[in-house]
Structures are given as structure tokens and as C-alpha cells.
Predict the structure.
Amino acid sequence: MIAAPPGLEPAMDLARVELSPQKEVVRKFYKDMWDHADITLIPEIFQPDFTFRGSLGPVLVGYDQFADYVRWVTDCLENYTSDILALVEQGDQVSGKLRFHGIHRRPMFGHAPTGRHVWWFGAPIFTFRDGRVSDLWVLGDIHGLISRLAPDATNKLEFTAGN
């Protein structure tokens, strides 16, 4: 795993917090499944008919489609890492604040590999049924990722503080 981009908010120290059973599933999803591209954990985490709307855009249903998505992301980004910045739980839902990052090694969103460390932020909402995730909706900062995949004059922000 690689360190978070410098100057950004540190990840939660998960060794120092007690997690509820639902938050533990979320931790397992990011730190055990995503950070190690361990798709064998998918049936343990998700209901068979779960729905997924990912931070990078696709809407998927079930284990196979989701496993393909995990392979694509982790193939494009070497040392893919999920930094859990915050988790909030209410009833059968857990939401969070995440930072995803890795080394850009394969074409992604039409951009050739750069070898750069790239990242984006995401805000997931996990819905649980019988201890496993039945729906996962993630809003992601795609513009931030694409601007790091191809930083050039066309990707400059139109608004910045102090303009």
C-alpha cells in the first residue's frame, strides 16, 4: 500500500476504534477486499442480488459484474488503496467519507498510463439486510480523478477561492 497524498486528511486509525458489526463489514469491504483486490470476499460482504452504483459511474448487479469492476480499477491503479476518513451509522445504513488512490498504470477514462499517484474522494451509502450489504451507492469525485490523470490547461478549475 502507498501513503495518502501529502497534505491531505489522514485516514481513520481503525485499530483504535471499536466498530459496530455493520461498520466492520464496511472496513472489511475497503481494507480487506479492495486494498488486496480479494474478490473471494464478495459473497461474505454482499447479498447475492445486491446493487452497486460505483464512484466511477457504473450501475451493477450481483457478484460477477462487481468482481469485474474491482479487477478493472485495481488493474488500472497499482497499489490501489482506500482510506476511510469517516464512518456514520444510522439504522440499516452506514455512510462514509473515503479517499481512493493508486499509481496510474493502465489506460483509464481515455488517458494513457502516467505512472503518477492519483486519487479521488467518495461518499458511500451502504444499506444492509440480514448482516450483508444489499445496496451500495457511492458518489465519487470523477472530475478530481480525471484532472489528476491528465493535468493540463483544459483541466484547470473555473472557480477558485479568491477569484
Summary: Helices lie at 21-34, 42-45, 62-76, 142-149. The radius of gyration is 16 Å. The beta strands are 46-53, 59-61, 77-90, 93-104, 117-129, 132-140. The CA atoms of residues 39 and 151 lie 32 Å apart.
